[in-house]
Design brief:
mainly alpha; rod-shaped
């Protein structure tokens, strides 16, 4: 390889490698923030459903039970949320008076 080509390639490769690492760090930071934000939104939805049904002593309809189960699956399985979301989900599912949704058992 000619010397002039090597002098051109080495700095370009170094810059590209550094740029790649920077891009990965930025994606990690903002990706993590987006996951945390989605987890908070889904936990908030579980809170809302819990407040509108369980805390008022109202029965949970099949539609609300299915919606709760869908939110919880995304919250728990997709975003690895747990703890309070699981407690809210369980109390909502326990307040459902009809046939169980597909995934009434905790994942």
């Amino acid at each position: 390889m000619p010397g002039w080509l090597q002098q051109l390639i080495v700095p370009l490769a170094s810059a590209a490698g550094g740029g790649l690492l920077t891009a990965l760090a930025v994606m990690w930071r903002y990706g993590h923030a987006l996951i945390e934000g989605m987890r908070a939104i889904m936990r908030g939805e579980l809170h809302r459903i819990h407040r509108e049904t369980v805390e008022k002593g109202l029965p949970v309809s099949m539609d609300v039970a299915q919606e709760t189960d869908d939110i919880y699956k995304a919250y728990h399985d997709g975003l690895h949320g747990n703890g309070l979301g699981t407690k809210l989900w369980r109390e909502i599912m326990d307040s459902h008076n009809g046939p169980p949704p597909e995934n009434k058992e905790e994942p």
